[in-house]
Amino acid sequence: MSPGPGTPPRTPLRFGYGTNGLTDLRLDDALALLADLGYDGVGLTLDHMHLDPLAADLPARTRRVARRLDTLGLGVTVETGARYVLDPRRKHGPSLLDPDPDDRVRRTGLLVRAVEVAAELGAHAVHCFSGTTPPGTDTDTAWKRLADSLDPVLDAAARAGVPLAVEPEPGHLLATLAGFHRLRGILGDPAPLGLTLDIGHCQCLEPLPPADCVRAAGPWLRHVQIEDMRRGVHEHLPFGEGEIDFPPVLEALAATGYQGLTVVELPRHSHAGPHHAATSLPFLRAAAGDPADHPGDPLATPRREPQP
């Protein structure tokens, strides 16, 4: 739909798909799939099966992935939500809030490494989250640990020119938009600090509807994740299986002028990752008023061919 007289043009939305929903595919195969389907980019989770951040040859691997992304014409956000990349026994452990300072340093080091990878890849942001508050830790102590742990990451982000986009995550210390603004205040509103807004999380627990959350978050948006969800239930769902009305959400997002990727986040659906990648993009384009270029089965009709 064309904007009316006097209405500023909307920023076209750029859609991506998260590799944490394609963990049964080799990274090269996942990137080729997304390019063939017509995605604009990828949310690349650093994990043992997809650009392992602990690999001894990480710099060489990163350069190769950068060339592959360029060849395929894919943008990228670096995501750091791998479940067991640092500790094979603790999901998302250690966190930025752990009582052991050495453990907190390990998580900070991973995030600094993610910033370095993001700079090499030309990523538009690095995503992270706070972690859950450890038992026996009071709230003020937890917020201080979070701020102190993020200081070196923000310094690295400033040097690299890559924003750090913190995600409010249900059940974590920083769970809501209000929590993000509390962190901003503690840190003194540093320029590299931005926000990852997960649209499903807005539906799950924010007091405002998702479209209003987008408008409220607009000035700080550096990364967006998207999926369907139900009120009060933190379960990432394929589009159409939850309660979100997506056209107003995407209209609000376009109106903010956000220029990064809007990445489909279905980490528990890797068993059917190619199917969900194929069906999600036409849904989002239709919801955004931008129908898919090719009707029919998107897996059978790739939009662009990889360059040799």
Mean pLDDT rating: 92
The tally of beta strands, per DSSP, is 10
User: According to CATH, what is the class?
Assistant: Alpha Beta
Order of helices and strands: EHEHEHEHEHEHHEEEHEH
State the low-pLDDT regions, or none.
292-308
CATH names the topology as: TIM Barrel
The N- and C-terminal alpha carbons lie at a distance of 36 Å
Question: What class would the helix/strand composition place it in?
Answer: alpha/beta
Which overall shape is indicated by the principal axes computed on the Cα atoms? globular
Order of strands, main sheet, comes to 3-2-1-10-7-6-5-4
Compute the number of helices.
9
Rounded radius of gyration (Å):
19 Å
The main sheet comes to: 8 strands, parallel
Name the CATH homologous superfamily.
Answer: Divalent-metal-dependent TIM barrel enzymes
| CATH architectural type | Alpha-Beta Barrel
Beta fraction of the residues? 5-15%
User: How many structural domains in the coordinates?
Assistant: 1
Helical content band: 25-40%
Region (Disordered): 287-308
Domain Xylose isomerase-like TIM barrel: 31-286
Protein name: TIM barrel protein
Biased composition (Basic and acidic residues): 291-308
